[in-house]
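Attaching the record inline, Q. Sequence:
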Amino acid sequence: MARPRPDVELVRGQLLDAAESLLKQHGPEKVTVTDVASRCGMSQSNAYRFFPSKRALMAGVADRWFAEIEGALEKVAAGKGDAESRLRRFVTTQLKLKRARHDADPALFVAYLQLAQGNMDAVREHVDRMSRMFLSVVTDWLTENERETGQAKRVRDTIEDATLLFRDPNIIARRRSECTDRRAELVVENLLAGFRSTLKKEPS
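Structure, as predicted:
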C-alpha cells in the first residue's frame, strides 16, 4: 500500500512554527534546518523537501509575518466607508498590529527585526505591496475631496514619511511609549488638513 501523502501546508506550517520558536531563542544566525527538523520529529532531508535551504525557510517565516499584516491592510483598503476613514485606519492599523506584536512578545519582535536585516529583498517587496495598497486609498481620498489624482504619489509619500514612527517596527521597538493611537491620529489629521488647503482642485 502506498504511503499517504503529507499535507504540504500543514507540514510547512509546523516547520515555520518550529523555526519561529528557535528564532526567538537563538536569533536567525544560529537557527539550523537540522534543529528545526528535529523539533518537528523529522529528518533534515525530509525538511528540505518543503524548504530547499535555510534561506528559504527563513524567508518563509518572514513572509508569513508580512502576510498577516498585509491581509489586515488589504481589508482596510478595500473595505466599506469613505476614503478618509479608510486612510486613517490604514495608518493606525499598522501601528496597532505591530505594537500588539511587540507587547505580546518583545523578544520575538526583536528576533524578527534581526531576521528582516538578512532578508531585505522580502522586506522591500512587502513595503512596496503596502505602498501600492495605500496609493489606492490616497487616490480615493483625492477623488472624494475633488483634488487632482495626479498628486496621489506625492501625497502618499508625504504621509508615509510623516508616519514612520507608527509604521516602522524598528522605530516602534525603540520608541514604544510614544507610539499611541492618539498621536498617530493627530499626525494624519494635520496632514490631511494641510493637503485640503494646498492641493490643486480638479478643474471644473
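The first helix runs from residue 8 to 26. The chain is about 75% helix and 0% strand.

More tomorrow.
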